[in-house]
Specification:
The chain is an alpha+beta fold and 237 residues long. The strands form five sheets. A four-stranded antiparallel beta sheet has the order 1-2-4-3, covered by helices on one side. A four-stranded mixed beta sheet has the order 5-15-6-7. Strands 10-9-12 form a three-stranded antiparallel beta sheet, with no helix packed on it. A hairpin with a 3-residue loop joins strand 3 and strand 4. The longest helix has 22 residues. It starts with a strand and ends in a 7-residue tail after the last helix. The radius of gyration is 20 Å and the shape is elongated. It folds into two domains: 83 residues, Gyrase A, domain 2, CATH 3.30.1360.40; 136 residues, Cyclophilin. Helix 1 crosses helix 2. It contains six helices and 15 strands.
Amino acid sequence: MWRLQVSGDESITIYLAENPSEAILRRIQLVGNFLREALAEWATDVVPSYCSITVYYDVLKSDAAVMSERLTSLLESFESDIATHGQGDSAGSARRVELPVFYGAEVAPDLQRVAKFASLSVDDVIRLHADTEFRVYALGFRPGFAYMGDTPPKLQVPRLDTPRRRVPEGAVAIAGPQAAVYPCVSPGGWNLIGRCPLALFDRTENPPKVLLQVGDRVRFRPVNRETYLELGGVLDD
């Protein structure tokens, strides 16, 4: 089932579950794609998240009451189709992305503390992080910032008590069950365990290029300092 809630002057959020999961991620992708096509005339954006989808609409063409009725009708139609055709297989269709990571101490200020939290060696933390396949559940906070999960339970370190004023671009971070790579310099309270040399958001392209998308399967590949620099990584911040 679902629940609709007006979430702004020009948006309605559809809640599809209470907790994220692989099955919910696939359902959100299917519903989101269905609504983008069905609402092309009225919607300005359809934004998926962990357990919900927010539909932004053109206020010159519709309002909250009309959009709520329209969404209810579409979701009922979608549910009927799902009952007939099933929900498909997310494993085979997901895009796979590999991100190189330099885990050197000079770019990983929290790696030792994470190792102590997990009662593991630094090498074991790196191995566990790199052996995990993460899924992109949502985009937000900054352009290109992908919320990924699930971080292995041993590495689910809480956020910092006091966020940093400045986290460098490319910082590889974990916090609780989530993981991410900071696409640009920004404040941040997650634990920094490495640095990725790839650009996650490129505003010089038109439209801007966003490397990770909701549903992607992501692996982190350890690289040494030399390779990190060859791939465009920086150490000066």
